Fold these 4 entries.
Entry 1:
Amino acid sequence: MNSPRMSDLVTATNVAKKFGDHTVLQDISFTVPNGTVTVILGPSGSGKTTLLRGLNALELFDSGQVQIGSVEVDFDTITPNRRGRLPSADQRLIQRYRAQSGMVFQGHNLFPHRTALQNVMEGPVVVQHRPENEARADAMSLLEQVGLAAHADKYPYQLSGGQQQRVGIARALALRPELVLFDEPTSALDPELVGDVLAVIRDLASEGRTMVIVTHEIKFAQQVADQVLFIDGGLVVERGAPQDVIAHPSHERTQAFLKRILEPI
């Protein structure tokens, strides 16, 4: 794989993934320039979430190469044994690769027995072995950034779904990742709670955070995306600026998808 241009934080080349006999991703290639927002659109089952999980090593691609920052993985050479375990050298490489990104899930995935503050501190203290006082100060700063400093000592059950999702964003940022990944961050929220979460993501975009976002919020995508990938059937069908892919899609599959999403019921 060629080295990425200095402006590209992410370079994915020919990545593919199967689950059994079902091909989920096939020959996916794209780049994410540093400091930009890439939005991934596509119908359910198109492979969007699998692609995102592969960028965070929650799933391992079957083949292809990905470079995030200074860490490059050739998945053609990563082969788990019969028990699904990797050799030690590959484990270390995948750990370095995973550390480049932070993931925000659609279902919050907060620890229910820990407060908002403790949830945000968990990764820096347990995974990165940072001093607890430093992690606490950073966590409070991040909770303030997402508008939840006053709720730092509350448990997830005491927070609304939108507040829980904002804690999830703070938790991902606490790891100081180069890349932030969002997997349909508003899909599990009541409509009245969506705006607060999208506002936080807009603020992150304005700060120049490099982000890849899977979403069905088309108007939001038009506002924040620097580039849009439309994925269907495990393939990148169309890519480009939002004014091209969303406002003036050229492929009939993209046109049909957007018509279904945007037409009133």
Entry 2:
Amino acid sequence: MKRLATILDKKINVIRGLSNEEGNLIITHIEQVHSLRRKVLQLQQIVNIFQDIKNTVAKNPQNTSRLISEILSNFRAFLDYWETNLKKEFNKESIQVKSFKNATKNEYDNVFEYRFIYELRNYIQHCGMPNFLIQSRLDIYENKIYELTLNTKELLNDFKWKPSVRRDLENKINTLDLLYVFSISIKSLERINNIALNYYDTGKALESCNFLLTYEKYKIDNSALTLIDFPKGYPEKLDGKLSVQEFPFDLAKHFIDQIDTNEK
């Protein structure tokens, strides 16, 4: 038995009952918004870790190795996530999957920073974390700038890189600023992410966001508006656990703003 209800301080206030049709429609739109959230979060997680690395280099350098491993793992997970989801959504021989693969190939072929980060994970798996040096300098405004540098000769001596990456490293000076490399590789991921997201119907996502916001009028003060599927026997008795789904109003508003901004 599905009902619309608010929850505040663990107290449930039932507003009204829902037909199966209305309840199922609400669930479909909630799932659509959360599906979009998962897609958007893939890249945001990498951006957040990169920011953590920059803060760590400045304040807590002993944690740098752990965060580098984490961002490399998420880098690969991001690519695997999109390829798996595109294959599931459109099939592995689809134009969308082929276009996605072409996009990743284009970044690998044309952006040194992207292909270096792509291969750095293999280096760490075989050779361990490379030695890095944290340095600081003042910019023209006398702000302290931090650099996380790697020795290219050491990288070349320790590992059998793919020919394209080896040529890159041989042509570099003795040091490589890893923070700069990460920042450029993330721009590559942003381009790949935009291509992948464009395969999904933003109009459909916008429809779900707007549909859910029509229920915001039922929200009272700081309460959470929810769809609750009460077990059989309610209200005389409760036989089993409650199934509760909260309306993601903040997410819906955020995505509406993002979609409107991207379409302008």
Entry 3:
Amino acid sequence: MKSINIFCFGFGQVAKGFIKKLIIENYNITLTTTSRNKSSKENFKGINHNSYLFDGNKFDNNLLVELKKADHILVSIPPEKQEDLVVKNFSEFIENSNVKWITYLSSTSVYGDHKGVWVNENSKTEPTSFKGISRLKAENSWLSLQMSKNLPVQIFRLSGIYSNEKNILVRLKLGTAKLINKKDHYFSRIHVEDITNILCKSLLKFKSGEIYNLADDKPSSSEDITLYGAKLLNIKNIKKIEINEIESEMLKNFYKDSKKVSNQKIKDYFGYNFKFPTYVEGLNYIRDNII
């Protein structure tokens, strides 16, 4: 049986999905996680583990013992004040650990606005949003650590994530989905299962210092996806609003950027075939099997 001692900074949907995938793949898993809540003993899918307090300003010192033992580290917590919190607080401990795989989950927001054209890992990174600027600075801090200390670091730039639980079909059923009127606005997305499948592949085929886009095959407009979801659920008369009517600052920033994110590198390097190549397969599966 394959064994893994993994330390997860943050334990959200991607990290949890990854652990589920490792269970399916019959790994013997030693797990440690962090949380903004006080330290506690937890059980996830039958795995007893410690969840340690780490809120950016303070952390439970006991986590340092487990961090030094870890051979794999997954970082999914966002930067704060444009600093990566793991590099800021734990770089010296990680340098002196036995880690052989560090994955930093970034975002395709680092590319900024490319007027709807295709971007790949070699494209210019000119982020327009605070989130994108922060993510790019965090990436650079990890790459700097990788080069100066010869640490095994890879970066995955994630597109918009949807899952069986969080998706446009759920929002349509709740009545919270809206059509945003913006012509030729393209963005990419990926189902969380495809993210976790690729993470699992990278355990066996790892190259330090590399950056990969994680996106499916079909960049599309938000309107296209919403209308397709509505068709699946036979929902009509969705409220349409103009860009200047958006109240959420995060959503406003989202609509500033238009780009199509290429996934060719992960297909070529990992030999990966998507479970959900586009939102069509993803939403059809969710409608037929989940909701």
Entry 4:
Amino acid sequence: MPRDPEIIVVDPDLDARADLKHMLGLVKLSVVGESDFGIEAVTVAKEHPADVFLISMEEPVARTIQTIEMLGSVAPKSAIVVYSSLADAASVRRAMVAGARDYLIKPLRPEDVSRAVYGILEQEERRRLQQEGDQSQPVGRGTVVTIFGAKGGIGKTTIATNLSAALVNATQSNVALVDMDTRFGDVAIMMDIAVEHSIADLGRRLDQLDRESIKDSLARHHTGVSILPAPLHPTEWRDLTAQHIEKIIDLLAQGYDWVVIDTPGTFNEIIAATLEIGDIILLITSMDIASIKDTALALEMLRAADVSEDKVKLLINHSTSANSLREEDVERVLEYKVTWRIPHDYNVASANQLGIPIVTAKPYARVSRAIMDLAYDLSGVSRERKGFLERFIGRAV
């Protein structure tokens, strides 16, 4: 993370400035100056060119836009972040065209401001290193999906294995499935593969790996998914640290379009690393009371860890046919929107016993269609219109 940033607040409202300075103090951000728009802002910027200018924008927006443009000329190395109650696309575009690097909608939350400031500084640091002669070529990075839940027995591994196969089917891209279940590690069994190399093996020779050679350690499944199993003996996890996990997942993300991580129903330093590095977190819950309670605690934990809510998506897995709750009850209790739902299907258990993902074994089953829909939604790939026979078979299964 970059050094502590210096911030100047630009707002004509003295009370608003005081409130913002107090908020920034809560997240340890240092305000080194403040000003009104126009000439005063330019004068302050000349005296102390800060890392970031936080600038208010309200109607009429002309003075704000003028000030952004002037600050861009006076302090070109400083970043500008606008905060406003104006949430329309036209206002956001005007600010960004004038030179703003980010746009925050009121009411402000301390963690949102902190995330915006540090995110901009990290981008600037990478740009500075490149300008100073870092000749390393930038590499692409796939999307990391972390399957997480605060309770065991809610179908996380079933979702992880089937989603991986569905992503291959939906996107025709390279997908890696990583078994990070530090307690049981059932991916290899559910996909019916032999464990020749595990994630623990990679940890022992991490310095010898790159984004290409790491692929040799993954088992290729007939669905097209490349699998990195958990170690056969749980004691082998003791040799792995969060730093090992971050490096392994980063290398995989450089070589695969998708990296799906299956995690246990517990929380530790290693699992924290998978949540930090995940681009999307699928938070799984079932419809029983215990799972809902544990999911509420998981949401609190994620918020305390400053994990962006934008990447946490709540998924209800109807793992049994008996549900005493409604989905709207779950949303009300958790105060969180349900993004996806997977229906109960008795075919899941038999497919798991055969070591075949149900999306492959019974592609027209209700649960298969739901997981395929999930894969399409995650990837942004358009669904092809189904023909009459396919729709008929799908209803009949």
